[in-house]
Amino acid sequence: MELNRRTLIAGAAAAGLTAAAAGGTAHASGGRKPVKELFGTLADGTKVYRWSLQNGGTRMKVLSYGGIVQSLEVPDRRGRYANVSLGFDNLDDYVASSPYFGALIGRYGNRIGKGRFTLDGTAYQLSVNDGENSLHGGAQGFDKRVWDVEPFTEGPDVGLRLYYTSADGEMGYPGTLKVKVTYTLTRNGDWRIDYRATTDKPTVVNLTSHVYWNLAGESSGTIYDHELSIEASRFTPVDKGLIPTGEPARVAGTPFDFRRAKPIGRDIRTAHQQLLYGKGFDHNWVLDKGITHRPELAATLRDPSSGRTLRISTNEPGLQFYSGNFLDGTLVGTGGNVYRQGDGLCLETQHFPDSPNQPSFPSTVLRPGETYRTTTVHSFGS
Ligand code: BGC
Predict the structure, then answer these.
(1) Is 6 helix (H, G, I), strand (E, B) or coil?
(2) In whole angstroms, how far apart are CA 1 and each of 4, 11, 380, 382?
(3) How many domains are there within the chain?
(4) How far is the CA of 78 from the centre of ligand 1 (A)?
(5) From ligand 1's centre to the CA of 6, what distance in Å?
(6) Residue in 139, 144, 110 with CA at minimum distance from that of residue 126
(7) What range defines the domain where residue 183 resides?
(8) Which of 178, 126, 133, 187 is nearest to 157 (CA)?
(9) Which residues of 197-218 are buried (b: 16+ CB within 10 A; e: fewer)?
């Protein structure tokens, strides 16, 4: 049964439960102010804080390091909460060995081939950190930066504004990039991300969020039974280095067809060249809606066991679906258990990988005087 969040809270109230028992979040006039605590200290002495916020039945914890969502809790169909995002319980593990758990990604989500591109006749060499390519902004991307965090409550909304200024030339990218990312928890328990950036020189930008979802709860096993639908008739095939070949392909008749919801595990072991390259799904889907003024539905994820659902809407043209293929049993997660292949999946709203080298892809160029603006909304249900 589809039960939306308001029904759940109303139901909890009707059952005589207090707001605290229902998650402590049912505030008609808005949520509580986010709470800050020390999470750890970096080697250079910089303090890292953790912010806790909740609204409309969703609870989240966010670090000033990388803008990382360290935990995100939502109820199942019986109102039982679980943390549905993979992560660590300590700062050292995030610094030493995180595969981008929960992090903000910049300046460029996904790969740029050979870490090179040319803009207005000038060639740029980026930090190369994934074979010969640049991945997720290079060796010290936005996921490894300490952000200035400002909490807010505004009407029924609760949230955090995260600020980071990336210096001209950082990781090889041109232009001083001023970035503001707003995490909002709405009265319905939606998590909205608004990305803004400006530059003082022509540059390229592609920001995203790298939460690993497991709607049954982190450490509960693989996501192969989760049912996924993606609003896309095409995807961008890649070469063995996971760089798009440049020619979108139709999903029809392939394991990449998620136009109707299907379990992720159903076709993941098909001997399809693209699945061999990615060791599973690790591809960009070309959303049928294209770039939109407002966020529109991109994907729906459902865990049949708990009933939890996640709907992702965005104004971005692409969605990277990564089925956690490179998790290999070497990392110990928040709950003290080891993460293995497929224990979480990422749904990263974005422009397409390698766009700076692919003239037929939508442009990722940002120029002085323009403002980069994208929005992604995560809506939870059960
Ligand atoms: C990429 C994967 C990469 C992973 C890093 C994903 O966004 O598509 O190829 O391994 O991030 O954890």
Answers:
(1) helix
(2) 10, 14, 14, 8
(3) 1
(4) 33
(5) 35
(6) 139
(7) 1-382
(8) 187
(9) bbbebebbbbbbbbbbbbbbbb
- Is the pLDDT at 17 greater than 60, yes or no? no
pLDDT tens per residue across span 186-212:
999 999 999 999 999 999 999 999 999
Is the pLDDT at 55 greater than 60? The verdict is: yes
Q: Which residue has the tokens 């005589």?
A: 16
Angle at 126 between CA 121 and CA 132, to 5 degrees: 115
CATH number for the domain including 73?
2.70.98.10
Q: What angle do CA 279, 281, 282 make, to 5 degrees?
A: 90
* Cα-to-centroid distance, 295 and ligand 1 (Å): 24
Token pair of 321, please?
A: 């679906």
Per the rule left: phi > 0, alpha: psi between -120 and 50, beta: everything else, 85 is beta
Q: What percent of the chain has pLDDT over 90?
A: 92
Find out whether the beta carbon of 242 lies less than 6 Å from any atom of ligand 1.
yes
**C-beta of 326 in contact with ligand 1 (< 6 A):** yes
